[in-house]
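<amino_acid_chain>
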Amino acid sequence: MNSGPAMLEVKGLHAFYGQNQALHGVSFDIGEGHIRTLLGANGAGKTTVLRALCGMVRTNGEIRFDGRAIAGWATEDIVRLGIAHVPEGRGTFLRVSVEENLQLGAMTRRDKPGIAADIEQVYAHFPRLRERRRQQAGTLSGGEQQMLAVGRALMLRPRLMLLDEPSFGLAPLIVEELFGILREVNRETGVAMLVVEQNAALALELAEHAYLLETGHIVMDAPAAVIGADEGIRRAYLGY
């Protein structure tokens, strides 16, 4: 979309858990407003890529956001730049209401009218959350909790959302609905997304570009349509 440098540039990224190396020289980039997906088997390193981008694991290599080197930054400083992480397992505050969760999502912001307008915007995307705005988050269904996790991340007004397994544990119809909303959010707000997803078919429909990860290496980097159309790749790596 933009001809200048990409919004996010990752070069030669290595990541470590203690002495164990989880990523081996991963490189990719994401342009403003783009949706990309990371695919691969369990243990390929997909979640580690997201955690590395958020400063949650030890890394070597280069991570640039808007041309600024952010590798080694504290997670909260990375969040302030406009990078929102929606971890697997929802990550909502179960004992407070839906609306309080959304307000907590905007904790780093000071613009009260803007926050109120953004809560309305989240409810416009997720009408079900509006209906349950006073309910404790812990009483929501899995699908509603996932919608709330996405809504809470949107309250940061992020420029990049990192979504880890958004379909995990959800019924197929709910997943279709959620992915439809993600597409709509991207179209309307221009927020870029990097999606880690076991449901490769859905992820390839949502994203315009895909990276295939195997044991911490990117083994394929191609338009989503190309990967989705290659039966050999689908069978070998994606299991469908």
Notes: The longest strand covers residues 20-30. DSSP finds ten helices and ten strands in the chain. Residues 92-157 form one domain. Residues 90 and 237 are 26 Å apart (CA to CA).
